[in-house]
Protein 1
Amino acid sequence: MNAHQLKVLLPFLELPFVEVLLEECSLMEIPKGQEVIQQDGFIPGVPIVLEGLIKVATKHDDRSLLLYYIKPGQSCVMSFSSCLKGSPSQIVATTEEDTKALLISIEKVALWLKQYPSFNKLFYAQFDTRYTDLIDNIQQLLFHKIDQRLYDYLVKKIELSNKSVIKITHQEIANELATAREVISRTLKKLEKEDKISQTPEGIVLL
């Protein structure tokens, strides 16, 4: 990716700073399914996703809860917070697809926030987006039944992957929705009887 392509992805950054990002940040190429940030571990820096998709979740005991996805042109606000405070990560981040990302070192984050005011816009935008995600998650947990939560989850999966079939296990869905596998299996059967989905050997299809 060159400076002009990155500028299209991050239009609020001035071109000279975009060039600095490409020159001084590490380019990571991460295969699908790899854990890139460990919960309770110290992170080396803040990623900006160029291609692919990263899933961010929080874990407690043997349960996890999906928080949000990092798409191209986005960063991880929780990593940003941990970097500034020098504290361990409160989240776990895993690649959903083969992913390319720029990694901004901890030292550069603090320096560039002062040196390039437009850099702040990236994280202001992330805070706003993740606050909306948080409110949506709370509303889902408090006010929506599991069948609606599961169906909304599948719709979002389709939108993010741009694929017509969702290849995922019942246990993986249960982990992301913080529930039991048996609950997911039962609810998927219910959605199938309602002609909302079809479970095929290739995966789950929305109807």
Protein 2
Amino acid sequence: MNAQLQLLRRHSTPAKALAEPAPDDNQLRQILEIAMYAPDHGRLHPYRFMTIRGDSRHELSRVFGKAVKRRDPDVTDEYLKKQKDKPLRSPLIIVVVACLIESPKIPEIEQMLCAGAAAHNILLASNAMGFGSIWLTGDNVYDDFVESALGLADNEKIIGFIFLGTEEISIPSPPNPRIDEKISQWP
């Protein structure tokens, strides 16, 4: 398949449809190297990647459970279980972290966008290697307790959790909006 056609077929795979095998260490390294080719004003490389697999997913599950209970002490058992199950849905999770640097020339928003572009490159690279992936956010991404449990510094923010693995079922690409609805000419 040519690269353009492959890009047109990229889609998010529901995390519950991801299974082993996940990328091995060599494939993961290649995926993360590709991520580092994200557009980067000032060449700050304002991001880092944290990988979670195996039993570490159970520790993340406990962190998510504690975070949910801190946000809502009256949380229902059903919702708590749903949140704690999230890290167990795929064999590999990459936490993309923005590492914000004080810069007189490159504002924080541009650094966040760079980290987001690196996250997107992870999706594209994993898809090109035949793996399924999905970029998830939600309350746990913006939770101070989760940031602390993951060891983030004061200048770091989670961009998202990228779940990776092999698609257990074939997922059709969702329909996109019509291109004409997204293009305009100014003035």
Protein 3
Amino acid sequence: MTDLFEFHSGHLPLLVSIPHAGTKIPDNIFGRFSNAGKKLPDTDWFVPRLYEFVKDLGAYLIVANYSRYVVDLNRPPDDKNLYEDEKGSGLIPMTLFDGSPLYAAEEPFTEEDINERLDTYWRPYHTKITEVVAQMKEDHGYALIYDAHAIASRIPNLFKGKLPDLNLGTNNAESCAPECGYAIAEVIRASGFTSTINGRFIGGYMTRHYGKPAKHVHAVQMEIGHAAYMDEASLEYDEEKADKLIPVLKNVVNAYLGAMSPGSPPV
């Protein structure tokens, strides 16, 4: 398949990954979804639009075209839970974030079914990331991964109250050099948006698997609350809100790059 993801090549030691904004679903899968599931409520809406600027910046960019409901690219291939209290999510999701069923009828998946989705959708995405990381290390001596996400600001089944606007995850300071986390944290704390670091979201599979500072690969996750840039009731992009957020995201990305800029030896 040639339409699994969009890829933009770059020249900087930075790869921005957007694994959950895709909405493509094969007909034989979509037809079995519940009515609620067919609305794709857990999509990371408009995230590629928010990060369009990284192309001009010179970063690498990879954006998945297929929905997380087909297979979740930010979950490990063995489907082990990333969070002890994880609900409504998995390698092949069976429920929506609110706990309701994704499929209209119970769907028993065989090991063959799972392997087919891994081989068709999951592995090509991660193979590309691995190739880009290797290229960045060859060119620069180190690699930076920025995993970009967004989520509804209120999901009682997953967390209490309203999620902060900007949620930085560094796997509790294990997925990147300290200066990377410090630099980004300084930007988001001064941004005027509500924020937290390693709160409800500390980073998924991308952050934890690829972020190996000792091997000169650094990874962070940014989870944005939908309320920061869109109307959550209508699921419409809010230009006024987004115009305030995008400059902050630019500052975040530049701070990440600056923390490991030439002259600063990789940690």
Protein 4
Amino acid sequence: MIRIAIALLVGGGILTFFGYNEHKLASAADSEPQTITAQDLIANGYDDNAHVSVKDFEMITWETIVLTPEDNPNKFEKVWAPMIAFDDPYIEELQALPDNAQTAPPYRGQVALILYSTDISSSGQLDSVAYQDTVQGLVINEIDKLGGEELKELKKSLSIDPDKVIILEHNRKPKGTGTTMLMMVGGVLLMLVGPGMIFLGRNK
């Protein structure tokens, strides 16, 4: 009985936490994405709609950080790919490279935009996304920021401020207000049921 009650309490807390985070994101986003250039997003933010379709960007795929499972290093689980705007001076450096260049020069600017993805599962998919005209997703800085091993790896070759970089989660869409409220209410109810079971068990 106590184990079940504790499980309900923990599960309720987790559901409430995720529900609250989803509610924060939904409050800052519309169901339809706004089309915005990478330049505008980096310079001015997303204004009143964190659900965006970003255009006019270059993805620095060779600086991408990838998390893979131990038993299948060719499968991507999580991806962090730096993105820059078309007005970035680095674009001119890339365009000046000879056709037979094997490597690109290091990026010396401050990384201001990162694409985070759990949908990209291979290097081929990463290249496909990089060459798309637009990339859709949700700016998730309200609930998350770079940290841990991915930040450590990115900092090995890039200049990046985790408190300022914009994190765009690939293909993520805001949940409806009804869904987020249901998650939070359900979580609170579970947290109430758990202690209630413990109390009733002790009084039997």
